[in-house]
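User: My advisor, Dr. K., asked me to get a structural model of this assembly before our group meeting. I'm new to this, so sorry if the format is off. These are the inputs:
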Amino acid sequence: MSMLRVLAISGSERSGSWNHHLLAVAVKALQAHGVQVDPLDLRALALPLYDGDFQQAHGVPDNVLRLRDALQAADALLLVTPEYNGFPPPLVVNSFDWLSRVGAEGDKPAGLVATAGKPVALMSASPGLLGGLRSLNYTRQYLSMAFAMMPVPQQFALARANEAFDETGALKDTKQRASVETVIAGLLKVAAALKNAPA
Ligand SMILES: Cc1cc2nc3c(=O)[nH]c(=O)nc-3n(C[C@H](O)[C@H](O)[C@H](O)COP(=O)(O)O)c2cc1C
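Assistant: The format is fine. Below is the predicted structure of the whole assembly, which you can bring to the meeting.
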């Protein structure tokens, strides 16, 4: 079997983000499993807030196609995102809303085709006591219901994220490190099974 490819996305636009820190830990865990990790910086796509008049006048921004292409190339997605008021943040929702407007072109699939049937693992980090847990079910529902993605049941919400990392960026707590591993193992199990499944 060829190497699994996982697209790694942080839902935070903030430098010094705790979710970037957690994503970095998860990326190391993925790489330790021999996975090719393709990072994508949502903020760097610089997408305008979705606006039907904008789309009518200018079409879908080219950078949305980068998200579509990255998803198409990946066997799975790892999304590590903060919650804002118990909900996935605008950066995530806006990027995926734009993606849903991408139509098929030549041999390139529509945005919703690139996501369909693709496994996704969810993590969150917050300085708060729940670690962003409240948003994960909404994100799960959003990606499965609208994008036909396959969220794996394992997930991890890192509470007190501002105290969780040592100076090397590693998680101090062994149980938290194990939680990351559990999510990664769940994602890779599904991704490998789907990659090997008959078409
Ligand atoms: C608009 C807004 C809403 C927030 N709502 C929540 C929340 O519902 N739950 C929570 O745990 N933290 C909440 N926070 C705090 C974030 O968890 C905190 O800013 C965190 O550092 C954001 O993640 P990042 O460090 O990856 O950027 C909120 C922050 C902002 C700016």
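One thing worth pointing out at the meeting: The pocket of flavin mononucleotide is lined by residues 12, 14, 17-19, 82-86, 125-128, 130, 132 (CB under 6 Å).

User: Perfect, thanks a lot.
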